[in-house]
Q: What sequence folds into this?
């Protein structure tokens, strides 16, 4: 590693030793930027990298709420306002018991480059809470969201910071959060994206991350003379991103053999078709059930529960052509990566953020498969969030076809920019470097132009 990047990484490890996910994201990013340091001395002179790893602001707050038994519960809320050089902070809110500063800082850091890649004017942010929505009643979720927004509302605004959904935050939660903001501020403005279409939401926002992942992957495959037609795909997770990834894969003529949740893995070698996908949507989004129930409903499927002590995930051992991790960070370790490559997988498109460990990343690179990092391949979600902001400013609502067309164009543009950055500054087809570099260059230029802030 270059002296400059090594010193900065040592500094990050020294000041935040207990933030492994953040350190991992910074390590991966700096490895890609390494090549640029000598060619672009202004980056060093203006300390752009040093400023990038320090959030502009971290907000941490108490979230008190009353459960259905009348007991007071306290959770911790966060908003990381990472970088606003190219636009208002933008990034999702995550509700999951694992949420902590390290996870949110890694997500906000990656978001900065992802948002830059979309070509829209959005800075990077992320937030959430260690609140676990699983097993809570609608009223409990509503009371939590109202309390969370009561504090968050003073830190956000349509030109300042515009949060959205992430793990554990879908249409229900965004609705409750938005309702509380509107009630407190007596204003109907686009301070959140992912809203319902009846109150300012954009069509195609729920679909956007999964659809965008498949659009970008299709562009990459097309550049190699390949397609999805008749190919077998692995998808992990069964939430928002997984569901719409499966939907678009089916539109493209692929066969999908897997899904999962945090309790276990579902393998359906006969293929998850439209009818089975509709079942999954109702199961997960309406009944808030577990993916295990799928195997009771469709007897041809096999369900393998996690026992907590596995050193690899059986989902990644299924023979397939392409793989789409859509659950969470670090869900593919070295062993999983080895299984994928040994089984003939030729493309890994990341729907989740940072789903591959550093060791898995390195193995994908060594094996020469097509590896598309989350900050490029899942950027469709935030891109349509950006389009929702534009619609809110105009007080207009575009048709689903108009939004989908723009999403497709944005994902094609992302392919062009990560592909050419890889060729110019790294090696052909190294989309990890391409995404880091292309995302970084625009942010860096904006930071230098705006002086030392
Ligand atoms: P959802 O909450 O809708 O779904 C998450 C899915 O992942 C669920 O199936 C969940 O299982 C599973 N999961 C969550 N945590 C774990 C874990 N620790 N171990 C195993 N499985 C887990 O979230 P999304 O689909 O929105 O998000 C999935 C990924 O995509 C995340 O990495 C997110 O950051 C990323 N992403 C999401 C975007 C969006 O627009 N929503 C945009 C860009 C990226 P269970 O039900 O058991 O919890």
A:
């Amino acid at each position: 590693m270059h002296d400059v990047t090594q010193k900065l990484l040592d500094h990050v490890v020294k000041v935040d030793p207990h933030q492994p996910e953040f350190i991992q994201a910074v390590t991966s990013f700096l490895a890609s930027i390494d090549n640029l340091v000598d060619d672009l001395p202004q980056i060093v002179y203006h300390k752009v990298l040093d400023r990038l790893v320090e959030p502009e602001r971290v907000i941490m707050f108490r979230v008190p709420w009353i459960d259905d038994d009348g007991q007071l519960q306290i959770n911790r809320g966060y908003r990381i306002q990472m970088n606003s050089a190219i636009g208002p902070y933008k990034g999702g809110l995550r509700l999951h018991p694992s949420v902590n500063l390290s996870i949110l800082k890694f997500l906000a850091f990656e978001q900065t480059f992802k948002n830059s890649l979309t070509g829209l004017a959005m800075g990077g942010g992320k937030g959430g809470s260690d609140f676990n929505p699983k097993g809570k009643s609608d009223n409990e979720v509503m009371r939590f969201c109202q309390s969370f927004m009561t504090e968050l509302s003073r830190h956000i605004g349509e030109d300042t910071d515009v949060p959205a959904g992430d793990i554990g935050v879908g249409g229900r939660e965004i609705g409750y959060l938005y309702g509380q903001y509107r009630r407190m501020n007596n204003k109907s403005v686009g301070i959140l994206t992912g809203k319902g279409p009846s109150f300012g939401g954009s069509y195609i926002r729920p679909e956007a991350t999964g659809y965008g992942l498949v659009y970008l992957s299709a562009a990459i495959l097309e550049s190699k003379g390949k397609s999805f037609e008749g190919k077998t795909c692995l998808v992990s997770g069964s939430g928002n991103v997984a569901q719409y990834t499966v939907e678009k894969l089916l539109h493209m003529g692929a066969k999908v053999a897997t899904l999962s949740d945090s309790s276990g893995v579902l393998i359906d070698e006969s293929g998850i078709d439209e009818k089975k996908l509709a079942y999954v949507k109702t199961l997960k989004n309406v009944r808030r059930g577990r993916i295990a129930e799928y195997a009771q409903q469709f007897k041809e499927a096999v369900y393998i529960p996690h026992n907590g002590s596995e050193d690899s995930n059986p989902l990644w051992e299924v023979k397939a052509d392409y793989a789409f991790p859509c659950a969470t960070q670090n869900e593919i370790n070295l062993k999983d990566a080895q299984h994928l490559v040994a089984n003939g997988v030729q493309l890994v498109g990341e729907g989740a953020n940072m789903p591959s460990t550093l060791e898995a990343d390195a193995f994908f690179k060594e094996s020469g498969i097509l590896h598309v990092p989350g900050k490029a391949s899942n950027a469709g979600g935030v891109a349509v969030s950006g389009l929702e902001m534009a619609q809110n400013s105009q007080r207009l609502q575009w048709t689903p076809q108009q939004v989908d067309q723009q999403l497709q164009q944005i994902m094609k543009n992302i392919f062009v920019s990560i592909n050419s950055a890889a060729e110019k500054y790294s090696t052909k087809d190294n989309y990890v470097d391409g995404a880091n570099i292309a995302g970084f260059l625009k942010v860096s230029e904006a930071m230098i132009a705006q002086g030392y802030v």
In short: The chain has two domains: 3-189, 207-372. The mean pLDDT is 98. The two ends are 28 Å apart (CA to CA). The pocket of NDP is lined by residues 165-168, 170, 209, 237-242, 261-263, 326-328, 351-353, 378, 381 (CB under 6 Å).
